[in-house]
Every structure is written in structure tokens, then in C-alpha cells.
Design a protein that fits this description.
With 165 residues, the protein is α+β, with helices and mostly antiparallel strands. The chain has a single domain, classed as 6-pyruvoyl tetrahydropterin synthase/QueD (Tetrahydropterin Synthase, Chain A), CATH 3.30.479. It contains two helices and eleven strands. The strands form two sheets. Strands 1, 2, 3, 4, 8, 9, 10 and 11 form an eight-stranded mixed β-sheet that branches. A three-stranded antiparallel β-sheet has the order 5-6-7, with no helix packed on it. Bound molecules: zinc ion.
Length: 165
């Protein structure tokens, strides 16, 4: 059994900019409108696998964190990231960018590809899932017609939830 939210029509979207270091085209700072679609598999506890409003709220909170920001992957070894109180300086491929700190969201990934953002979103959603949930599928589109997906299986051990493969 599953429930699904479509990022485009459920308005779970964000606009942001990023870069893919060393990529001939995507190595330049550029932006996308992203849509986050999520499918949650599991058994019902009561009426729902998970209440749509709760799931929407969790996704919207992540979108809010990323919306109108520069997204940087803090574990990307191709980036040299230096921070002070007011700014973040990024050096990569002989280029240097300086951003006001409030304009940036650092994500704990090694890339800001759609694939990596899916992994990030799935791991952020996992702790908020209902007890019956066994799997989360996240799809992130970079504009219409281009997207990536990631599946996170949630291992249930007694009272708590842990991330599986
Ligand atoms: Zn891009």
C-alpha cells in the first residue's frame, strides 16, 4: 500500500541555484525550479499509512530550507568552502564565489545533483515517518521532464526507526 504526493501539483517546489564542479556546462552557477515528489509505502496505522497533511508539512519544511538559496554540498571534495560570520567563500576549478551566509543552504552530501538531493530529502523525511512505513521513494525534478529518484528502505527495530539500504 502506498501514498503519493506529486511535487508539481501539490506545490512542493523550490527554486534554487547550484553548480556541479568541473562539469563543462553545469560547472557554472545556474538555477532550477525543483519539484519534490514522494511516495511512501507501508501498512496503515489506523486510517492512514501517513496523514497527507503531515507528509506535506515535512516536505514543505525541507523545500523552505532550500528555496531561493544557493545550495552547496558541504562534503563535496571538489569544493573548498570557507566560512566566516557573514559569508561563505567557495573555490572550485580556479573560480571563487563569495555569498552572504543567509543566501546559502549547506547540505550534508557530496554533490548537489538531483540524485544527491533525493538522498538528502529521503534521509530528512525518514525520522518523521509513521510506524507502519517501510519505504520512501523521493523523486526530484529539475524543471519539467528531467528528474532523479532514490528509494530508502526503513528498517523497523522495536520501538524506533532506523535507515536501511
Ligand atoms: Zn543544475
Amino acid at each position: 500500500m502506498w501514498v503519493e504526493l506529486d511535487g508539481w501539483t501539490a506545490k512542493l517546489r523550490f527554486s534554487a541555484c547550484h553548480l556541479i564542479p568541473h562539469h563543462p556546462k553545469c560547472g557554472r552557477l545556474h538555477g532550477h525550479t525543483y519539484a519534490v515528489s514522494v511516495k511512501v509505502f507501508g501498512e496503515r496505522t489506523g486510517e492512514f499509512i501517513i496523514d497527507f497533511e503531515i507528509l506535506k508539512g515535512l516536505i514543505a519544511e525541507i523545500c523552505e530550507r532550500l528555496d531561493h538559496r544557493v545550495i552547496l554540498a558541504e562534503n563535496d571534495t571538489r569544493l573548498q568552502i570557507t566560512k566566516d560570520d557573514q559569508s561563505i567563500i567557495v573555490e572550485t576549478g580556479g573560480k571563487m564565489y563569495q555569498f552572504p551566509i543567509e543566501d546559502v543552504t549547506l547540505v550534508p552530501t557530496d554533490s548537489t545533483s538531483a540524485e544527491s538531493l533525493c538522498e538528502y530529502v529521503a534521509s530528512e523525511l525518514a525520522p518523521g515517518m509513521s510506524p507502519g512505513v517501510s519505504r520512501i521513494e523521493v523523486r526530484i525534478d529539475e524543471g519539467l521532464g528531467q528528474g532523479a529518484g532514490f528509494t530508502l528502505d526503513i528498517a523497523r527495530t522495536g520501538a524506533g526507526a532506523g535507515a536501511g539500504t
